[in-house]
Structures are given as structure tokens and as C-alpha cells.
Amino acid sequence: MMKEYLFLIDQYLNNTISQNDRETLLLWVTEKKEHENIFKKEIGNWSLSAKEIPVNTTKAFENLIALLKKK
Q: In 3D, which of 10, 16, 66, 70 has the Cα closest to residue 38?
């Protein structure tokens, strides 16, 4: 099951996620603090692997929530 959410996070980070999957990801991320932490960790790993400027993972999490609530 965790693998499915890691896949959704990857799709989100690569901007290839569908609206339905965004909603699924939002529900999962907001369900438990542990899920939020996993999401933030994956964003940090992605940022490092992309050799981009380090990402503020808390801000990225807040952006996800705001984006997904807009629908």
C-alpha cells in the first residue's frame, strides 16, 4: 500500500498526477502526521536528486494542501 502512495507522490512531483489521484494523495497525507512526514521526506529526496535548490518541505506540503483544496 505504501508503494502506491510513493508512486502518487512521484506523480505529483513530476506534475503527471490526475485529479482523482491528487484527491487520494490529499486524503492520505492529511490522515496522519506520519504520512505528512513521508511526503516531506520524499520532496526533500526529490529536490536533492534533481540537484535543485533545497526545498522547504513544510512550504511544499502547505502548497500541496492549498492546491488540492482548490480542485
A: 10
* pLDDT given for residue 51 in this prediction: 62
pLDDT tens by residue, 48-64: 666 655 667 778 778 77
- Whether residue 21 contacts residue 51, with contact meaning beta carbons closer than 8 Å, is answered with no
Confidence of residue 27 (pLDDT cuts 50, 70, 90): very high
DSSP-derived secondary structure for 12-67: HHTT---HHHHHHHHHHHHH-HHHHHHHHHHHHHHHHHTT-SPP-HHHHHHHHHHH
